[in-house]
Amino acid sequence: MTSINKSASQVWAEIVSNKKVGAYHHMVFQVGELATHAKPGNFVAIAVGGSNSAMVLRRAFAIYRTFDRGVTGGLLEIVVAPHGAGSTWLTNQNPGFKVDLIAPLGTAFGIPTQPVRALLVGGGYGSAPLFGLSEVLKSRGCRVDMVLGASTAMKIYAPLDGKRSVSSLTIATEDGSTGITGKVTDVIPGIIEANSIDIIYSCGPMGMLEAINKISSEFGIMHQCAIEESMACGIGVCMTCVLPMKGEDGQIRMLRSCIDGPVVDGDNVVWGAKRVIPEGTWGAN
Amino acid sequence: MTSINKSASQVWAEIVSNKKVGAYHHMVFQVGELATHAKPGNFVAIAVGGSNSAMVLRRAFAIYRTFDRGVTGGLLEIVVAPHGAGSTWLTNQNPGFKVDLIAPLGTAFGIPTQPVRALLVGGGYGSAPLFGLSEVLKSRGCRVDMVLGASTAMKIYAPLDGKRSVSSLTIATEDGSTGITGKVTDVIPGIIEANSIDIIYSCGPMGMLEAINKISSEFGIMHQCAIEESMACGIGVCMTCVLPMKGEDGQIRMLRSCIDGPVVDGDNVVWGAKRVIPEGTWGAN
Amino acid sequence: MFNYQTKLGQAEFSNPIFTASGCAGSGKELSQFFDISELGAIVTKSIMLKPRSGRATPRMAETPSGMLNSIGLQGPGIDLFLENDIPWLRDQGATIVVSIAGESVEDYAVLARKLRAVSGISALEVNISCPNVENRGQVFACHPTTARAAIEAVRRNIGGELPIIAKLTPDVTSIVEIAEEVVAAGADGLALINTVLGMVIDTNTMRPKLAGKTGGLSGPAIRPVAVRAIYQVHSALPHVKILGMGGVASGRDAFELILAGASAVSVGTATFGNPTAVMQIKEELKNELISHGFDSLQEAVGYAHRSEGNI
Amino acid sequence: MFNYQTKLGQAEFSNPIFTASGCAGSGKELSQFFDISELGAIVTKSIMLKPRSGRATPRMAETPSGMLNSIGLQGPGIDLFLENDIPWLRDQGATIVVSIAGESVEDYAVLARKLRAVSGISALEVNISCPNVENRGQVFACHPTTARAAIEAVRRNIGGELPIIAKLTPDVTSIVEIAEEVVAAGADGLALINTVLGMVIDTNTMRPKLAGKTGGLSGPAIRPVAVRAIYQVHSALPHVKILGMGGVASGRDAFELILAGASAVSVGTATFGNPTAVMQIKEELKNELISHGFDSLQEAVGYAHRSEGNI
Ligand SMILES: Cc1cc2nc3c(=O)[nH]c(=O)nc-3n(C[C@H](O)[C@H](O)[C@H](O)COP(=O)(O)OP(=O)(O)OC[C@H]3O[C@@H](n4cnc5c(N)ncnc54)[C@H](O)[C@@H]3O)c2cc1C
Ligand SMILES: Cc1cc2nc3c(=O)[nH]c(=O)nc-3n(C[C@H](O)[C@H](O)[C@H](O)COP(=O)(O)OP(=O)(O)OC[C@H]3O[C@@H](n4cnc5c(N)ncnc54)[C@H](O)[C@@H]3O)c2cc1C
Ligand SMILES: Cc1cc2nc3c(=O)[nH]c(=O)nc-3n(C[C@H](O)[C@H](O)[C@H](O)COP(=O)(O)O)c2cc1C
Ligand SMILES: Cc1cc2nc3c(=O)[nH]c(=O)nc-3n(C[C@H](O)[C@H](O)[C@H](O)COP(=O)(O)O)c2cc1C
Ligand code: FES
Ligand code: FES
């Protein structure tokens, strides 16, 4: 046996609830025992389109949170943005419908052993996994600040109970429809300084993660980010989801974001390497 | 303009009802005005699988009957045997769901100008179009006898009000689970003789139609049958659904069963020509 | 004003959405559903010299996101076609592209001579994806020499005006090589792609589903193959106009072929699933083009090549 | 008792369901979902001489009933592979087919020499659908001479025992011609088919979606192409064992390839949609065979050919 995908299992998960929240759908699935294995940062892979679907690949979604409900089985929640065909199909399914779901997959956010001051930054639905993370960090005595950003208010996902789990919540929208007008990166430096942040956890579009990493580097603080690469399998067998990452030996390798990620150390990512293999990558020729 | 597909139109038809009857589903669609154009023998072509379906072709179903309901729009009914992926998908859709439907398509059963004695023979769901035909024939003063056959009782489709429209109904099943034990062809000769049948109308599997045509030829009576060929388009543009038919000039041609059929004159069909082009066919080489 | 016009060789078309050969009957069947004069062009079913029964049935099998067909070029032959179909289409005001197919080089020559004086035809699509009876039934378009011979025969016999669009099969080691040959032989444009050779075995009867055993695969399943072929050929022969086809079922799909290098797009299998597909695609493609900021179709042709340098 | 065993060359396998090369990782990733020793064989990702980063991203695009990939043979190179992957697979009790790929004829020779003494390998799959750097990047399997050269190099260097299965691309004018060449060159079996060359253009960015522009099309979309290729090659070379693949996602699909002439079936893309697909297919195929009255897998191999005479 190996440790890859080690707590993952495949289940027929019944949709327990599917509610529209702003631009997103908050969906709850009955997943049984596997809920107990999920950690903040892990993701699920769901088959879409039903039988005879022209879509042959699963779709990945960050786990928003899980509940262990004993004998009735655990619940797993995700936040879905209806985007293309697959996510739209999923958000159109009603409670009672069962989907083929694999979870938990991928790496989780690293939890510090010391009570640190953490800043959680989410872009769009990227906020979803941060609330569960915030609970864990709080239970470890960490202070948690949060910044959420999106193009517009409808795309800010910040449920009430989620908000309660953080010490401060700053919202930034590009059109100013809620919170301050601007990007998350406009406010992050101020918060880092004001609250003496030790570590940033982030989840959102690649461009945002890169911009955050620039800031964290400048401040010399840690940055763990959950990246979103196009995935065909989600379990490490296809090699489509790779991104160039620096290892401890300084060597750049093309690593799979589904099993060596999605949560990675921001400083290890070779940013801006879309459509090119960075020079010096292991095996580049 | 031409006369091909001349009263056909394409509509989003809402499913009004979907009930399991024996091995089949009786399905009712709200189709609006086009219901008024349908004649017994015509068929509908329905897109299956929803958006992002891997099934790119429509499925054809004989029209069971239509109702004109004035402003609320006409109704169109079909009887579906869940068989492969497409028909199974259709029978799984619930009332309220809308399907993309084209109707009426194809030829209709020819209605004699004189009051004749007609025998209607249906195999399996092939009975469906015969009840509407029976109504029309009765309204023209014809006597209508009916024989329905199937492998087993569950596959006999014979609703109560349908039964009422015929003078006699004989049922034959191969396993004897209802009616007499045997095939429709076992009883047809007796009925032809007893009731001095002038014309046979039939609908069902190709093998049954061929066997019936042998009998009608022996008795020298007319035989109109609705054939079921694999159709890609249903509207005459693809040439997949052809079958060899003798024309009035005695020439065999490969004719399209979707527009020159599905109802054809049994004596014109070159029977048993599956997987071969009959000798002498126009353009054979 | 958005300019939707396009050209293939010297022929001009009001818009780039055509029917695909063999997928629109004689035009009559579709005219119940829309006005066929609104098409960029109707491409007629490949017509041969003599009447032809086509292949035995079954002739089709549905496949995942596609279908196989083996119609075997059923048709009335060129004489009846010119007598019946062409006048009717002309009366409708349809823009006509005639597709021809032969079993020998001489067939192509004779077909071209029969068509040279016919009025109301905008272009000739030469289907060379047919078995060559003089060469062990090998498909013309599979070999540079036979592909060339068929197109040369048409070129020599067609006279000056009518643009020749050579229709190629993707079932070759190098479609660029074949494209170069037929262009050298006088083709003004290329139609890419014909169906991909496939087979379905019926697991109930345990034999090939089609009477003709193999058939041509079409529909969305082959769209990536069409895009690749168009892209490769447009790269190699940027000045040769391409009529693209293969799995187009939406304006987005048509746009994809245009970006790859097609100047016009034929819609085949999608019509079987939806008789008004061509008209919907015509509208959708226009909207795609406008929403991407193009003022004309022409600007978008092959854009996927040009933008590479920019990034 | 139903006999599910099969052979490819001299190698025997307990059942005919294999993973497809490049679609099962190192085996470790799937072992969480099922016991990989229950596979007919695990076919490893094509391994090259040296470590290889593969292509830049994006490397994949979903297509109707399929997907494009351009992984570019990312891998650790033969030495690390033999050091890490093989021992682990052997420890699991897995039946191993090693897939190799080279950029030159010499690469294939060296790879074969490195493998000849390795124990626990049942067969070698030789992926010759790779660009030949010595020949303008043309794919070995696209031309009879280069295909032959690569297989000969393996044959000469592998020693007596290990069966060689040559994996061919369908992107050729005649796959039978290539099959005949590689068999003449010493291949004991054939793997049919590798992916079909395709392209997707992202209509948002208006450029090819994959960083490598073109990619390989796989999944149910290409199944009819696989069935055709297997059928044609089995017709021409009935005594050569075929490992079939291409779009198999169910026992029915695997049965279709067996009927066409495959003695074993690899499952690729289906695993991405469903990690336990191979195990399900193994069960389903067995049930299909039994329900059609076969007492052994062998009786069904190529049955679609034999039954023709009977009707
Ligand atoms: C680790 C991970 C976590 C994710 N978490 C969420 C989440 O919490 N909520 C959410 O709404 N979405 C999430 N996504 C994106 C999601 O998986 C879908 O890709 C997205 O919903 C678009 O799929 P579609 O079928 O609607 O679009 P389509 O355009 O039909 O997708 C076509 C293909 O492209 C891929 N693709 C398209 N967009 C993306 C994208 N943004 N990221 C990765 N692949 C993409 C799809 O997976 C699919 O294979 C996540 C993706 C990853 C990899
Ligand atoms: C004129 C006509 C009238 C019909 N009337 C009825 C009816 O009243 N009730 C009913 O249940 N079915 C009827 N059928 C059959 C129906 O159209 C479907 O083909 C059948 O339900 C199987 O489709 P599927 O998707 O379930 O099977 P699949 O096996 O998934 O179908 C695959 C392909 O094969 C074709 N096919 C499969 N079986 C048949 C068949 N028996 N006849 C023609 N094509 C077939 C399908 O159309 C499809 O293109 C009729 C067919 C025709 C041509
Ligand atoms: C039923 C059918 C019949 C066809 N007949 C012809 C034909 O006569 N001549 C021809 O050049 N192509 C013919 N084709 C190929 C189409 O014109 C087109 O090239 C191919 O189907 C790919 O486009 P599509 O995926 O939009 O169907 C036919 C295709 C189908 C499906
Ligand atoms: C992501 C991916 C990677 C692949 N890598 C290889 C490879 O390394 N070597 C090889 O011979 N084939 C490779 N293939 C081809 C498959 O082994 C198989 O031949 C093809 O995908 C068709 O089968 P499928 O439709 O079941 O996927 C790869 C296919 C995919 C989708
Ligand atoms: S998605 Fe397949 S390896 Fe990561
Ligand atoms: S089904 Fe297309 S012509 Fe009849």
From TrEMBL, chains C, D:
Pathway: Pyrimidine metabolism; UMP biosynthesis via de novo pathway. InterPro entries: Aldolase_TIM, DHO_dehydrogenase, DHOD_1B, Dihydroorotate_DH_1, Dihydroorotate_DH_1_2, Dihydroorotate_DH_cat, Dihydroorotate_DH_CS, Dihydroorotate_DH_I. It is found in: Cytoplasm. Keywords: Cytoplasm, Flavoprotein, FMN, Oxidoreductase, Pyrimidine biosynthesis. GO terms for cellular component: cytoplasm. The keyword Cytoplasm applies. Residues 5-289 form the Dihydroorotate dehydrogenase catalytic domain. Its cofactor is FMN. GO terms for biological process: 'de novo' pyrimidine nucleobase biosynthetic process; 'de novo' UMP biosynthetic process. One of its GO terms (molecular function) is dihydroorotate dehydrogenase activity. Its main location: cytoplasm. It holds the Pfam family DHO_dh. NCBIfam families: PRK07259.1, pyrD_sub1_fam. Belongs to the dihydroorotate dehydrogenase family. Type 1 subfamily. This is Unannotated protein. It comes from freshwater metagenome.
